[in-house]
Design goal:
four-stranded antiparallel sheet, 4 strands, alpha+beta, binds zinc ion, 2 helices
């Protein structure tokens, strides 16, 4: 039987040489975003200090909660908005 999985992707060499090509993959909140490298699918996220860090399962969990909390709050704000434009 042949091995179907390749251990190393040729794209990783490109990343090592030229750096990752990160694209915005998910907007969790206006301040927290997730980025994925177009080449090797390496993921980054914004941490609590506003710095980019590797998207570990722990950060993924935090972002899920954060995103959920944010969208709920946004909906809540939209639902009760007694101040409308008075012009
Ligand atoms: Zn990469």
């Amino acid at each position: 039987m042949k091995k179907s999985t390749q251990a190393s992707s040729p794209f990783k060499i490109v990343c090592t040489l030229f750096g990752h090509k990160y694209v915005l993959s998910k907007k969790v909140t206006p301040h927290v975003k997730e980025y994925t490298c177009k080449c090797c699918k390496h993921q980054l996220t914004t941490n609590g200090n506003g710095e980019l860090t590797e998207l570990t399962p722990k950060y993924q969990e935090i972002n899920d909660i954060l995103g959920d909390f944010y969208s709920r709050r946004l909906m809540h704000m939209k639902n009760q908005n007694p101040i409308s434009a008075s012009y």
